[in-house]
Amino acid sequence: MKNSFNIQNLKCGGCANTIVTQLSKLDGISEVEVNNDTDEVSFNTVSVTEIESVKQKLSDLGYPIVGDANSLPKKAKSFVSCAVGRMTK
Questions:
Q1: How far apart are CA 61 and CA 18, in angstroms?
Q2: Which residues face 85 on adjacent strands?
Q3: Confidence (pTM)
Q4: Model confidence pLDDT, tens digit, residues 35-53
Q5: How far apart are CA 85 and CA 4, in angstroms?
Q6: CA neighbours within 13 Å on the CB side: how many for 17?
Q7: What does the alpha-carbon distance between residue 48 and residue 46 come to, in Å, rounded to a whole number?
Q8: For residue 4, what are the contacts with CB-CB under 8 A and spacing of at least 6?
Q9: What are phi and psi of 14, to 5 degrees?
Q10: Averaged over 5-29, what is the pLDDT?
Q11: By C-alpha distance, which of 46, 47, 41 is closest to 59?
């Protein structure tokens, strides 16, 4: 099942790399793609139960879904995730 979310704090390819790497580790998630131009993350799930784990993982990484709270700590986490993504590219 194809799903997509618009996310906050997406800055660059480093961010995208971290998101793809981390979401791909989740059970039942495949074909993760990030579009930096539209701030959109798309992915396939086996069932709807995986969607909440994707939302939680994105938030934990500092990239909450548009409309969710985007606190200063989440913004700071996104910078760390971005830097990690750049180093592991």
A1: 8
A2: none
A3: 0.91
A4: 999 999 999 999 888 999 9
A5: 21
A6: 14
A7: 7
A8: 40, 41, 42, 43
A9: -65, -45
A10: 95
A11: 41
Q: What are 15's two structure tokens?
A: 């961010």
Place of tokens 């799903």: 3
Other C-beta atoms lying within 10 Å of the C-beta of residue 20: 17
Quickly tell me which residue has 């750049």 as its tokens. 86
Q: Per residue, what are the HEC states of the chain?
A: CEEEEEECCCCCHHHHHHHHHHHHCCCCEEEEEEECCCCEEEEEECCCHHHHHHHHHHHHHCCCECCCCCCHHHHHHHHHHHHHHHHCC
The torsion of the CA quartet 42, 20, 52, 38, rounded to 10 degrees, works out to -40
- pLDDT at position 89 is 58
CB 71 within 8 A of CB 27: no
Tokens of 53: 């784990």
